[in-house]
Amino acid sequence: MKTVNILAILALVGIVGTSCTSGDGDSPPNATPTPTATPTPTPTATPTTTPTVTPTATPTATATAEPTPTSAPVAGLPVFPGAEGFGSTTPAGRGGRVIAVTSLADRGPGSLREALETPGPRVVIFRVGGVIRLRELLFIRHPFVTVAGQTAPGDGIMIRDAGIVVISHDVLLQHLRVRPGDEGNVRPEDNDAIALLGPKVGDAPGAFNVVIDHVSASWGEDETISTFFGAHDITISNSIISEALNVGRRGVGHSAGLLIGDYSDRVSMRYNLLAHNDFRNPLIIKGGTHDFIGNVVYDWGIEASLIVDIDSSTRVDFIRNRYLAGPSSGGEVKEIWIESRTPRGKGSTRPRLYLSDNIGPNRPNEEVDVIEMLSFSIDPSVIQGETLEEQIAWVKQTYLAEAPQSAAFTAPSGDVIERVLSSAGATRPRRDEVDRRVVDQVWSRTGRIIDNPRQVGGFPTLSSAAPPQDSDADGMPDEWELWQGLDPASALDGSQDVDGDGYTNLEEYLHSLL
């Protein structure tokens, strides 16, 4: 059902049949896309008919500065300092043209939609803050783009009434608030805050080398964030995924937080807060190698984290996560549920999990056996051993790995809860009242899963402010350029790299705002 619904929406807005290959001017200047391992997932059924649509015209950018790179790209450079995880060495929009969002309208000159629909490498900055009310889904179909929400003046930027769909590669999204809610035009079955879809959507290359960082996603009616159709090499970091709507317009309970599904591969989930989601915190289904590191999961309902392996050899590292029960949490729920299925009795693959330093209600400290956090749904006839001790030993040997299986990482230091609650989400220029309330509820162990935004005060109001003076429209304020010894009258220095560290001068400015 998920597949059919998403394809229907894509056909409606003109995605199916639209080419998004990097051979049409979408390659980054003076840079090569970061090579990544390409997964070979087992394909799901493809619809027998594909709607024919006429691609919409590509709009013209409203405010740009043409790039003139002066240094060669640095191989393996994180997309921003400290970035880690699968896909995190993407160049994103590095060295591309600067496009300024100057309007909060759904579409038209100066809109975010126009900036995203502009092909070619680009860095999207905001000269206006406030709320963008979408009439339909917002697609990223052209690769090599950085969306720098931290540049929005005033209270920052929020997107409501629909979500973002990424169907291309080499993308960085930072400091955005995406809250679809239940008042927009998108069908509830497709109403995610952010969806990252793989290469089964028309001619689109699919989502890979994508970093979602410091994003606040809430009030989705399907999933809040999802990866599907074999999307791969993705990192979701330092974000808040909260208050997935339990009823919304569906009329049935579906408060779903984070889905890594349909043969997605190489997805990193690091230092996030997942709060007030009934289930899917996350759900990882149908294979791939993934990691879930340094996250805080609060106030799940019927299910916390779930691994469903359908003859697909799923590999997941769970490292230093904190599970905190809340008012909605069932007393008998284990922190991690493992379901292993082999369709029609064929195959013999099983999931493998590496577990280290995970704490929750069933394992309050490191002295308690890790098996206490786990619940298994497997065929009891395959379990070996005569005694309970022998059976537990067999389960550990079969399903638990002895070493990490995914991307390199820096073990989170200090208190995980303090780190996540102090820094996760869209914190620039400042947290909005939704995130402040959710974080306060984690600290006080209050709040509940909700049915609609009106139960918690509805959509917040975000104000704009005067943006900093930027005479040459290169994305860097005049004052900052003078401080760095750059020329505020020349747009050419934004894509240059004065200190030779691999990051452009514009990126250095964007990093200074983090």
Contiguous uncertain segments of 5+ residues: 1-25, 29-63, 66-70
Which structural class fits the helix and strand makeup? alpha/beta
- What is the radius of gyration computed over CA atoms, rounded to a whole number of angstroms? 22 Å
The DSSP helix count reads 7
User: How many E strands?
Assistant: 27
> Mean pLDDT, rounded to whole units?
86
How are the strands ordered across the major sheet?
1-2-5-8-11-14-17-20-23-26
Main β-sheet description: 10 strands, parallel
Written overview of the protein:
With 514 residues, the protein is an alpha/beta fold. Helix content is 12%, strand content 23%. It has seven helices and 27 strands. It has a ten-stranded parallel beta sheet. Strand 1 (97-101), helix 2 and strand 2 (122-126) form a beta-alpha-beta unit. The protein is globular, with a radius of gyration of 22 Å.
Descriptive tags:
globular; alpha/beta; 514 residues; disordered N terminus; nine-stranded parallel beta sheet; 7 helices
Write a concise synopsis of the structure shown.
12% of the residues lie in helices and 23% in strands. The protein has 7 helices and 27 strands. It is globular.
Which helices and strands occur, and which strands form pairs?
Elements: H1 2-12, E1 97-101, H2 112-117, E2 122-126, E3 130-133, E4 138-140, E5 145-148, E6 157-160, E7 164-166, E8 169-174, E9 177-179, E10 194-197, E11 208-213, E12 216-218, E13 223-228, E14 232-237, E15 240-242, E16 256-260, E17 265-270, E18 273-275, E19 283-285, E20 289-293, E21 296-298, E22 305-310, E23 315-319, E24 322-324, E25 336-341, E26 352-356, E27 374-377, H3 388-399, H4 416-423, H5 433-444, H6 478-483, H7 505-512
